[in-house]
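Per your request, structure below.
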């Protein structure tokens, strides 16, 4: 009786690493980290100064006090400025990802699908044409055989 050996841990790990989606994920993480720096620079260099025309340039300074006294770090503070800054960063990141990556890729894939469909339609039309030609040849051969049998 032969026993099947299960792949070893190292072989399983090698198979895991060789999958394409692991490499894609690693690339996405690296690009995401670099992209985070860009978004943070936009928020610090553009958004915060624009907000600074209304008040302070650091959104973390915007807060509301829930207790009677919020001096010297005491009391309950709602740091809504930090939430606003994080929300702006998220919205900017999502907009850039959508408009610079998702939308162009969707349009590209739609064009590729349209080209592929057009090629398939052309191929199908060619096959239909070939089929029609073969039918005509068959009909001509049948007619030729039929007329040949009459003469004998």
């Amino acid at each position: 009786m032969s026993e099947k050996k299960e792949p070893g841990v190292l072989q399983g790990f090698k198979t895991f690493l060789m999958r394409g989606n692991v490499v894609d994920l690693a690339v996405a993480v690296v690009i995401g980290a670099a992209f985070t720096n860009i978004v943070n620079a936009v928020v610090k260099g553009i958004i915060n100064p624009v907000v600074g025309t209304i008040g302070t340039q650091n959104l973390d300074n915007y807060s509301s006090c829930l207790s009677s006294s919020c001096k010297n770090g005491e009391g309950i503070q709602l740091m809504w400025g930090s939430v606003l800054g994080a929300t702006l960063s998220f919205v900017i990141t999502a907009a850039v990802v959508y408009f610079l990556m998702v939308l162009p890729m969707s349009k590209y894939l739609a064009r590729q699908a349209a080209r592929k469909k057009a090629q398939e339609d052309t191929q199908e039309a060619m096959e239909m044409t070939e089929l029609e030609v073969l039918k005509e040849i068959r009909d001509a051969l049948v007619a030729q055989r039929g007329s040949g049998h009459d003469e004998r």
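The beta strands are 64-65, 77-78.

Regards,
D.
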